[in-house]
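My main concern about presentation is that the manuscript never shows what a single data entry looks like. An entry of this sort, consisting of the sequence and the corresponding C-alpha cells, reads as follows:
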Amino acid sequence: MEQISEAEISIVLDTFMYLNYQQAADGTSVREILKELEQYPDYQEGGCHFDEYTIIEQAAQNDAVGELVIGCQSANMGYDRGTAACTFSTPDKDTIYVVYRGTGDGEWPDNGIGMTKAVTTQQERALQYFEEVVETTGAGEGQRLVVTGHSKGGNKAQFVTMETRYADRINACYSADGQGFSPRAIKRWQDKYGKSGFEERTQKIQGINGENDYVNTLGQCIIPQDNIRYVRTPVEKYNVAGYHDIKYMFAERIDDLETGEYMTVFRGRKNSYTSGQGTLGEYAAALSVWVMAIPESARDSCAAVVMQIMESLQGTKTGLNGEKLTLSDISDFISLGIPVIASSLFGGEGGRNFLAAVAGKESFTGQLHGSMNLEITTEALSSGRCELEQAVHKISSLTDQIREAAGEIPSYMKGSMEIYWKLRISAETLERLEKKLKHMIQIHEEIEINYRKWEEQAMETAETAIAFCQKIQ
C-alpha cells in the first residue's frame, strides 16, 4: 500500500471536518462514516459536500486514513458550534490526531480580535477542549500526538501548541492556511517562555498553505520559514474563495484541447508542493504587512469591519460571543482601512494581478497616478437617508394593506385558506425588512452627524492655519 505522510493525513482530516457531519458515534472508523454518508443527497454527486466527500472517500482507500477512528467530538462534550473539533486515532492507539475545523458560524469577529489581542475567546475554548481530551484520555502518554486544523482551525492548532501546559506531549502541529497572531500574543509567549522556549514550541509547527491562499498571511506568522510549504491549487477563474478552500489542494484541472474548456476534479491525494507562493499569495502577504502597520486601535476596528462583513455573508448579524460593530469601527475603517486596501490594490503589480483574477482577466493594466481620495458629501448622505425613509414609509403602508386584506377574510375560513397564511407571512417578512431599514437609517444618521463634525473640524483647522499665515505675513 502506498505510503502517505503524516502531514497529508492531517490535511485530509482537516478536509473531513468540512463534511459537517456530527452524528457519527465515537469509535466509528472513517470508512464506516463514509458508508453512513453515502445515503444523503449532500454527499452525492451534485450535493454541497460532494467534492469533500470524494476526497475523503479516495483517501480512505489507504488504511492509514480509512481505519482511523473518530472520538471526543466537541459537539458531544458541551462545546459551542464554533469550537468544532474531534480526535482521530489509529486502531492501535499509537497515534492520535486532534483536529479543529475552520471558521464556524459566528466566529468571524473572533478572527478580527486575534489581529490585535493576545488571546481570543474561541482560542481559549480550543485550548480548553484540547486539555480536556488530554486529561480524560491520556493522549500523548507513550503515543504520538498531532494537532491540526485548516484556516481558523490552523490558528487554533498553533495557539494550542504555544499555550498548553501539555506542550511536551505534542509531537507535531500542522496548520493548513492558518492565520498568524497579533504582536501582543507573540510578545506574551516570548516573555513567558524566553527565546529558547518560544523557539522550541514554534519548531513543532508546520505550515501547509495553498500557493495563493490569502488567510495564512494575516497577522504575524510564528511558523519558522523552513517549516512552511506551499501546495499547488488549480482554482477556476472568478472563484476567489477557492484560493482559500482546502479542497483545491486535492484538485486536478483537466483541459479539453478541442473546445478550450476545462473541468476540475478532486482526488484523494494532495497536490505537489510548489517552490513558493503564487502571485496572489505574495500580494496577500504584502497587504498584511500594510494592515499590521496601522495603529493597533484602528487595526482592531478595521479587522472588526472586514470580519463582520464576512459573518454577514453567512447570514449572521453578530459574533458567536455577541461581538457587534460600533460607529467608531466603521469610522476607522473608512479613514484608514479603505485607503490602505485601495493603495495596495492599485499601487502595485501584486494588487493589480489580484484584481485581474477577480475580474477573470489575464492581467490588469490600469494605472492610478498621484494620490487616491475617497469622498462623499453631506448632501449625498442626506439624500441617501431620505431615500431609505421613503422606502420604509412604502413598506409600512404595504404591510398595513396586506394585514387589512388578511383581516377581511372570514374567521371560519382562515384556518383552511392558504392565502390567509401567505398574507400573514408576507406581512411579517415586510415588518422584518422595515426594522432592518430603520436600523440602517439610524446608522446613516450617525455617519452623517460625524461627517458634518469632521467637516467643521477641518474648516476650523483651515481657518486657524490661514490666520497664523496672515500674522506671519
User: Anything to note?
Assistant: Residues 226 and 371 are 39 Å apart (CA to CA). The longest strand covers residues 144-150. Confidence is low (pLDDT under 50) at residues 363-374. Residues 285-359 form one domain.
